[in-house]
Structure formats: structure tokens, C-alpha cells
Write a structure and sequence with these properties.
With about 190 residues, the chain is α/β, with parallel strands linked by helices. The chain is about 40% helix and about 15% strand. The chain has a single domain (about 1-190), classed as Flavodoxin domain (Rossmann fold). It has 7 helices and 6 strands. The protein is globular. The protein binds flavin mononucleotide.
Length: about 190
């Protein structure tokens, strides 16, 4: 099973989350995490992680999808939105229908719009007919967290300088999200 993780990141927090989520994917036997960043739009604010740029072919080949974006005024970033808006041909062909999907974000402040960002990312995935997966309250870390980690997806509170360390709950929930999508993709089969 190939689980595709596509992220946008400028300062590196969302990129770090992508790596934690990839570890969760890899914890499930037979599952490979394919990590991609959103394509360059020619602006100067793209992190240079060296990960390949995401393509429509990646989406066609994946068995599950996990999208990550920094919180931008309570919404996903313009770069992730531009990539999502390039997927009309896959919408027409129904390529993503029935595949499991989840989302993650990082913001500077605790109540700075993480949940609205996560929900905004769910919307186009629903248009694509994907099966939206979150994080249930049966996970202890969802109940206990006083930082990031929400029922709508994984999150991180990066702080005003984007320097906060990841809390144990944030790390646990990133990995749990990857593991959940991978195990669901296995159950759904090809
Ligand atoms: C244009 C812009 C808008 C932002 N909007 C928000 C916001 O609404 N709420 C918030 O808490 N942080 C906001 N931030 C801060 C980022 O979400 C935060 O620094 C995030 O951790 C960056 O992720 P990255 O390190 O992957 O780039 C904004 C940053 C920028 C540049």
C-alpha cells in the first residue's frame, strides 16, 4: 500500500509533521509512505526540503492520502490550494473515490484557526469522494493534549517564533494518523 503525504511548509514545522506521520505509516506492515511537497509556484517562500514535488501521477498511484498545510488566516495555504485546484482531471475520472484521506496543520498560536484549517482541507477531499479519517477520542492523547492534536486531524502549536518543540501528544497523534490511514487502506484493499 502506498500512502501519499503531500505537504506545504515554509519554516519547517509542517515538514517535520510529515516525517512523523510517515513513521506512523511505516509502522503498518506492507505500507510505504511517499512524501512529497507541493509544487513550486515561483514564489520565494517554499521550504527546500529536497522532497520531490507532488504530481497527479502520485495521486493516481496512492492507496491513501494525507495533506498538510501551515495555517494561513484559518485556512490552507495558497500553494496547497493551487495544487488541489490542479486535480480536476482526477475528479472527472473519479480516481480518488473511496480512498481514505486525512489532514494536518501547524499554526503559531493555540487558538489561531487550526480546526478551521483542517476542516477547509477536508472539503475538496469530500468532493473527490475520499473517506475522511480523523483522530478518535479513544486515543488518550486526543483527550489529554494541551497543545496540538484534534479530532479533525493532527496539529502542532509552533509558537510565535515557530520554535516550539513537539509535545509527546503531538508526536503520538501524528504517528497515529499515519498508522490509521495505512491500516484503513489495507482493510479497504486495492
Ligand atoms: C500569511 C500567514 C498567515 C498565517 N496565519 C496564521 C493564523 O491564522 N493562525 C496562526 O496561529 N498562525 C498563522 N500563521 C503562522 C503559521 O501558521 C505558523 O508559523 C506555522 O507553524 C508555519 O508552518 P511551517 O513551519 O511549516 O511553514 C500565519 C503565517 C503566515 C505567513
Amino acid at each position: 500500500m502506498k500512502i501519499l503525504i503531500i505537504y506545504d511548509s515554509r519554516l519547517g514545522a509542517v515538514e517535520k509533521m510529515a516525517r512523523l506521520i510517515a513513521r506512523g505509516v511505516a509502522s503498518q506492515g506492507d505500507c510505504e509512505a511517499v512524501v512529497r511537497r507541493v509544487p513550486d509556484l515561483g514564489d520565494t517562500n517554499l521550504s527546500d526540503s529536497g522532497d520531490p514535488f507532488a504530481s497527479l501521477e502520485d495521486l493516481t498511484e496512492c492507496d491513501g492520502l494525507i495533506l498538510g498545510s501551515p495555517t494561513r488566516f484559518g485556512n490552507m495555504s495558497h500553494r496547497l490550494k493551487a495544487f488541489v485546484d490542479s486535480t480536476s482531471s482526477l475528479w472527472l475520472s473519479g480516481t480518488l473515490v473511496g480512498k481514505p484521506a486525512a489532514v494536518f496543520t501547524s499554526s503559531s498560536s493555540m487558538h489561531g484557526g487550526q480546526e478551521s484549517t483542517l476542516l477547509s482541507m477536508h472539503v475538496p477531499l469530500l468532493h473527490h469522494g475520499m473517506l475522511i479519517v480523523g483522530l478518535p477520542f479513544t486515543l488518550d492523547a486526543v483527550k489529554k493534549t494541551v497543545s496540538g492534536g484534534t479530532p479533525y486531524g493532527a496539529s502542532h502549536v509552533a509558537g510565535p517564533q515557530n520554535t516550539n518543540e513537539f509535545t509527546d501528544e503531538e508526536k503520538t497523534l501524528c504517528k497515529a494518523l499515519g498508522a490509521r490511514i495505512a491500516s484503513l487502506a489495507q482493510k479497504l484493499g486495492k
